[in-house]
Design goal:
3 domains, Diaminopimelate Epimerase, Chain A, domain 1, single chain
């Protein structure tokens, strides 16, 4: 059984799995790319932009974070995801404001902090502004970061690139709502100028302290928010002379506060992360085995009396998508009795039965308590 909690940050949602107590530092709950895709499917699975694992540390931190995109690929980092991870850890461990976590990621050490208002501030570290660090084939331009013009689907765009442990391309435009995100986002993601693919961000400058952006995430497509993307967008816009070092960035899922600190060179991100629900997923192999066994038990036989009794099954789990043993359902008799009662009894009689039953249980509990106290 796979237990999970679902969290979202500005609508960017993730399934959170706690493997900190696992002895094997590479423990990944049996996740495969195919299973990740299945779980993240919003119609046939739980639904999510990705799956995040809290794992034992490997590089001296308090714990390690791994994240899988909805397409089964593993990115280096995710800003909204690490805020959700911090909120998940605080809720699970009962931590209060001021708590920080030293979290190792493929992008290096990231340090989120729980603030007094329940939001999360994340020290995202310094941005990567050299082409080989992003990575990109764009050369460093006059703004001090990789920049240039790219032909995408027959149209030219002035772009800038920055890395936050993962690659980002930032495209300033006059009106983000007029951009065909499906068309251009998908093509920018796989543009040859970005050998590891890239996250794509179209940004509109409302004023130097207020930016509006839309996101196409590598491996996920359009999302409501991207924390690392918001950080990269502020870095690019400030470098290009379009914004201050501190600005509010409005994404489809809500706002983030981003600050590129001049003294330390680090980028700080403030934003929400909220619990959605908890759940569990039956072990796929166990469910498959139970279904197969039940199917075999239901096969016709020349000697039905000699057929071994079918094992008990957990109908609530194995039969979630429909009865798998219709010819020998263990709950069929009980359901038939209920159906017969409902058919043969009037509503007034049902109410009377329920009332009498409640009175009987209450009287019995009172008499039991009285005898114990006497």
């Amino acid at each position: 059984m796979l237990q999970f909690s679902k969290y979202q940050g500005l609508g960017n949602d993730f399934l959170m799995l706690d493997g900190r107590s696992a002895g094997d530092s590479e423990f990944v709950f049996g996740l495969t790319p195919e299973l990740v895709v299945q779980l993240c499917d919003r119609r046939f699975g739980v639904g999510g932009d990705g799956i995040i694992l809290a794992l034992p540390p490997m590089a001296g931190g308090e714990l390690r974070m791994r994240i899988f995109n909805a397409d089964g690929t593993e990115p280096e980092m995710c800003g909204n995801g690490i805020r959700c991870l911090a909120r998940f850890l605080a809720d699970r461990d009962g931590d209060g404001p001021g708590r920080t976590w030293q979290i190792d990621t493929l992008a290096g050490r990231i340090v989120p902090q729980l603030l007094d208002d329940g939001t999360i501030r994340v020290d995202m570290g310094a941005p990567f502004l050299l082409p080989e660090q992003v990575p990109t084939t764009l050369a460093v331009g006059a703004a001090g970061l990789p920049q240039g013009e790219l032909d995408v689907d027959g149209e030219w765009f002035a772009v800038a690139a920055a890395g936050m442990g993962n690659p980002h391309v930032v495209i300033p435009v006059d009106a983000v709502e007029e951009i065909d995100l499906e068309r251009f986002g998908s093509r920018f993601e796989i543009h040859p100028a970005f050998p590891a693919k890239t996250n794509v961000h179209f940004v509109q400058v409302l004023n130097p302290e207020h930016l509006l952006m839309r996101v196409w995430e590598r491996g996920a497509g359009p999302t409501l928010a991207c924390g690392t993307g918001a950080c990269a967008t502020l870095v690019a816009c400030h470098s290009l002379g379009l914004s201050e070092r501190r600005a509010r960035i409005d994404l489809p899922g809500g706002p983030l506060q981003i600050h590129w600190d001049a003294a330390s060179g680090k980028v700080f991100m403030d934003g929400p992360a909220e619990h959605v629900f908890d759940g569990f997923i039956p072990d796929p192999e166990a469910v498959a085995a139970a279904r197969q066994h039940a199917a075999e038990q239901c096969q016709p036989s020349d000697n039905a009396a000699a057929r071994p009794a079918a094992p008990e099954i957990d109908c609530a789990t194995v039969c979630a998508n429909g009865c798998i043993r219709p010819d020998n359902c263990p709950s069929a008799e009980a359901r038939a009795r209920v159906a017969a009662l409902l058919t043969s009894t009037s509503l007034d009689d049902l109410v009377s039965i329920a009332t009498n039953s409640l009175e009987s249980r209450t009287r019995a509990r009172f008499e039991r308590d009285s005898s114990l106290n006497g």
